[in-house]
Amino acid sequence: MSSLLRNQKVRNTLLQVLYVGSIAALVLAGVVIARRNLAEQGITSGFDFLFKSTGWDVNFTLLPATANDPYWWFFLIGITNTLFLGTVGLVLATIVGTIVGLARTSSNELAQLLGRTYVDIFRNIPLILQVFFWYALITHLPTPRAAHEAWGFLLTSRGLYIPFPNVRGVTMVLALFALIAAIALPVWLGRTSRLSQPVGGRHAIQFAVAAAALACAAIILAIGRLPDAPFIDFPALQGLNLRGGLRIPPEFSALAIAIAIYGGSYIAEIVRGGFKSVGKGQMEAALSLGLSPWRVFTLVRLPLALRAMLPILANQYVWLMKATTMGIAVGFTDFFMIVALTINHSGQTLEVIGILMAGFLAINLSLAALFNRLNKAIALKGNQLRG
Amino acid sequence: MEIVAPPAPGKLEDLRRRFFATPLQAVMSLICLAIMAFIVWKLLTWAVFSAVFTTAGGPEACQAAAGACWSVIAARWRIILFGLYPYEEQWRSALACVAVVVMTVLSCIPAFWTGRRIALVWGIGTTVFYALMKGGMLGLPFVGEEAWGGLALTLFIFVTTCLIGFPLAICLALLRRSELPWISRTTGLIIDGVRSLPLISILFTFAIVLPFALPQWLQGDKLYRVILGSALFFSAYQAEIVRGGMQGVAKGQEEAAMALGMRYWQRIGRILLPQAMRNALPATINQFVISFKETSLVVIVGFFEILASGNAAYGTGEWRFAYVEVYAFIAFIYFVFVFSLSRYGAFLERRMSASER
Questions:
Q1: How far apart are CA B11 and CA A186, in angstroms?
Q2: B208–A20 C-beta distance less than 8 A
Q3: B31 Rama sector, left if φ>0, alpha if ψ -120 to 50, beta otherwise
């Protein structure tokens, strides 16, 4: 026996079996105990609860929801809410971060100072404090009767009311796709090698395609508009409440603002790092070739900086996506809040925690896959690499 | 021919060159200046010129004023800083916070950067903190954890998270680097699994869900379960940082140690880890900064740390309108801690890159 233990191979195998086995045993014991505890409370395990109706309402949803809908539908609502808030937050944070980051890399010292002050202040205050702050600020706005008004926008304690086209939801989505196509198609046409025309001579085709896509969007909107209603719906006071327009609830705007400002301060640093990593010689070479400063920026500095930024940016985006879970602090019904509510109401603890893990794993993995593809597409290839 | 250096530019000339070199620069400078002047002016008017500082007039005088109402801080600072801690004993809570600050400052001094000394500093610091807070000895009345709150609770969660999380991170990093495939793969799965989840969901699981999966005698206090969850989260991130540091150590170092006949733990403890920690130092401090900010999330699972006590300070009764001032105060406290720590990290990074040149 002792000679067997002295054998390196046997010892290694034993060690591995012991390690993996003890972790598996821990998890298994936890599951068994949990099942027994839950069974004592009269909760049967399994995923049948997913098809029961919930009986509660959510305050923000992109998909139609009633209290009679089953749990699985609410999980779907939670995920779309998380993704929607995340996307809005990411886009806003990227805009803020790009502006501040460019200010920090500009040649103007005052702009640098402004950028640095912004980053120093907002990076060093916890995100949840900022969420609480904006939520308190918005809910302390005047009531609908005394709303702040500007250009048809109404600021009230019940949310932000914005003018909105009077169209059906499906139409909106289709029109959005047409708009995206109007931007993406010309870009694609300018790069693809499938056309016989040289890259420089494609402006006419690009314009035509963009105009066609825009026309498509306009036609879709015109067809999909609700009959006998003005095309754009302005919010207005009717009785004690506001009618019309699109209401953005305070929970959503507080989270979106906080994520934009806090995430923006991190993205600003990433943008600055990206631009700093571009070699000075590259820009000097471009300038000496007679390119204008603008073309140096768009053709040399930006693409090179983007390549340096993208992997770090991907991490930051994943982090910001997870930060949407702070919605539970102010009552925004994101995926995590639906999970917490479901545990409270149905008691299906283990199953729901499993769904939570699977949900976030799926979100993280798909974001990571998306960025890996993007990174591969724009990475320097072969002989473009500098020695 | 004699070459004469051009005369040094005067103050005005210097200013012109720095901010008004070209028309575009001049326009940008002016815009930035205007933005800055506007913000500073607005802030000063609000926070100083038309603000109320004394509690003399009470909330009513405050509400009438146009500017900030700092009297809410003067009236409620004890709740914000100490939470529900018994009023007469709050000096202990304050002293405990000082102990943590001293401990942090000491561990920032390079003379303490050996494994034994840093362990000693943190051991003593935490013991002093715990003894002061909990009492029940040396004539100090006993105060249970459920009465802790405010800044002291925030610091306690942060310190214990690091104290448990750091050794755990080193263990996880070593296990992940193990040559035995099953051990490294299982550890990798645990680390990546924890990293892909939001911290809130882990805190929630440890606080609310875990009691179902534990036998009665293992459940412990909710506070310690939450600390364990936060330590696990910290260690998953820190383990990757340590692993990165280990990868930066040249392979020859370990081979040389092996050739000298050093055993595994000697190689790890004397050769690999010291060099790895040096490589990982900037990222480690960054992680400490992040996890200090993230302690604020325990407010969601129902703890009375500084953010929750701040909510309570303005949320009840007559100070309901003064939320901006309370949040500004808490933000300032966080800012002082986080900013000084991150400045220190930046200083260290500069110093280390200078010594490598």
A1: 52
A2: no
A3: alpha
| C-alpha of A215 from chain center | 29
pLDDT, position A101: 92
**Which H or E run includes A156?**
strand A153-156
Residue with tokens 């109401």: A345
Beta carbons within 8 Å of B190's beta carbon, 6+ residues apart: A23, B172, B236
Is residue B233 very low, low, confident or very high in pLDDT (cuts 50, 70, 90)? very high
Q: Give the model confidence (pLDDT) of B242-294 as tens digits.
A: 999 888 888 888 889 888 888 888 888 888 888 888 888 888 888 999 999 98
Q: Do A126 and B36 touch (CB under 8 A)?
A: no
What are the residues facing A149 on neighbouring strands?
A: A154
Q: Pick the closest to residue B284 from B116, B184, B165, B178 (CA basis).
A: B165
Residue A248, min C-alpha distance to chain B (Å): 22
With an 8 Å Cβ cutoff, are A125 and B28 in contact? no
What pLDDT, on the 0 to 100 scale, is given for residue A94? 94
For residue B245, what are its two tokens? 């540091």
Is A129 close to B300, i.e. CB distance below 8 A? no
Average pLDDT, stretch B136-149?
77
CB contact under 8 A, B307 and A126: yes
- Provide the ipTM: 0.87
How does B246-270 read in b/e, with b if 16+ C-beta sit within 10 Å?
A: beebeeeebeebeeeebeeeebbee
Measured distance CA(B245)–CA(B239) in Å, rounded: 10
Closest CA to A326 of B123, B199, B136: B199
d(CA A237, CA A152): 12
Min CA distance, A325 vs chain B (Å)?
A: 7
Q: Which of A114, A328, A350 sits opposite B200 (nearest CB)?
A: A328
Backbone torsions φ then ψ of B317, nearest 5 degrees: 70, -140
Task: Give the dihedral of Cα atoms B316, B322, B327, B328; nearest 10 deg.
Answer: -150
For chain A, which residues score pLDDT lower than 70? 1-5, 152, 168-169, 191-193, 198-201, 226-231, 237-244, 380-387
CB atoms within 10 A of CB B4: 6
pLDDT given at position B315:
76
C-alpha distance from A358 to closest chain B C-alpha (Å): 10
Q: What is the pLDDT of residue A311?
A: 85
Spatial contact of A261 and A123, defined as CB atoms under 8 Å apart: no
Per-residue b/e over A157-171, b at no fewer than 16 CB within 10 Å? ebbbbbbbbbbeeeb
Q: Check residue B108 and report its DSSP letter.
A: T
Among B19, B183, B327, select the one facing A19 at the smallest CB separation.
B183
Burial-class residue B112 by CB neighbours within 10 Å (0-12, 13-18, 19+).
middle
CA proximity to B304, closest of B82, B94, B75: B82
Contact between A259 and A320 under an 8 Å Cβ cutoff? The reply is yes
3-class secondary structure per residue, B293-326: HHHHHHHHHCCCEHHHHHHHHHHCHHHCCCHHHH
How many Å apart are CA B228 and CA B236, to the nearest integer?
Answer: 12
Q: A246 - beta bridge partners?
A: A162
List CB contacts of B203: < 8 A, sequence separation 6 or more.
Answer: B226, B229, B230, B297, B298, B300, B301
Chain A: closest CA distance from residue B63 (Å): 14
- Which chain A residues are closer than 8 Å to B296 by Cβ? 126, 128-129
> What are residue A237's phi and psi, to 5 degrees?
-75, 130
Contact B330 A353 (CB under 8 A): no
- Dihedral (CA of A265, A267, A272, A277) sign: positive
